[in-house]
Prior knowledge:
The chain has helices spanning about 1-20, 30-45, 60-65, 80-90, 90-95, 105-120, 125-145, 145-150, 150-155, 170-190, 220-235, 240-275, 275-285, 285-290, 290-305, 330-335; strands at about 195-200, 200-205, 210. The chain is mainly alpha-helical. The protein folds into 2 domains: about 1-165 and about 310-335, no CATH class; about 170-305, no CATH class. Strands 1-2-3 form a 3-stranded antiparallel β-sheet, with helices on one face. Helix 1 (about 1-20) packs across helix 16. The two termini are about 15 Å apart. Residues about 1-20 and about 315-335 have low confidence and may be disordered.
Amino acid sequence: MSARVKQDDVAPSLGGAMAGARLELPYLKEFGILMAAWVALFQFLGNSTLGYVDTTSLFGWWKWTIAKTPTEQHAFFIPLVVVGLIYYRRAQLALIPKRVWWPALAVIGLALLFHLLGYLIQQGRVSVLAFSLGVFGVTGLFWGWHWMRATLLPFSLLFFCVPLGPGVEPLTFPLRLLATHITFTVCHDILGIDVIQRGNQLLDAGGQYQYEVAAACSGIQSLTAIAIFSIIYAFISFRSPWRILLVLLSGLPMAVVANVARLLMIVVAAEVFGQQAGDVVHASGFFSMLPYIPAIAGVMLVGRLLREKVPTGTSSTPTPGDAGGSGVAVGKALEA
């Protein structure tokens, strides 16, 4: 009975505790030293492909590579998004027990092996991935397994900092064919627009106007944008692993829908108003953004259907266990 009373006393005060919690991180000095060493490694021994850009810094190579690829400009903002998400969930993260967790050294060691491989084969992309994995491992070393579990989604966004370049062609080509086939089917069977499909090309009935589904229209941009949104949305909205997984998986079909919608807009505009109108829609930033609206709405609809229900009479604030901590007494109080 006394244990039960203690749990009941904890539950009502959880909301206030969460509101007043501050994210205090131990071992900041040691963390700063090791992180500085990690950054220095990639600054002075990060890039071996000096034929493209004359710098040994991986960060210099990365900035030069991203700046040359307009479709990957989002990479400049990803680190800020990661920090912002961690700050957003600071109240929950504050309640996680933080301690040195030595197994995280294995993550750092794996990151070092990846960097060594990337350095030897002159693939900076592998080293960018290695740097991000190492940062994640360093945080886990000083703040523990529960911290790594709770921040896995934000840190996974760093994958989108890796320049894809021509290495993404094996993925984009099937997407180009898929987008072309779906667009052809909708135009021909539903809208009654007489188009001809030749591989990843769509032509009007007279064979005069060609709608080529180029790499930029392959869906990789849509997939990247929707995947980033899905990760952010899942992190701030859910704590259940299976719900998070379903939200992330829903991003794939939604990205395909967005890409096909954009192609349909181009074909319909050209069919109704002429080739010049189709070219305007293709080049317009405004029309390029419109298909993202139903795609994002689709992901949010999936999230709404999967929304987590809070038991009646309990606090809606996530427990430390939900955020990755132990918080056993508080968690039991909320479950009671």
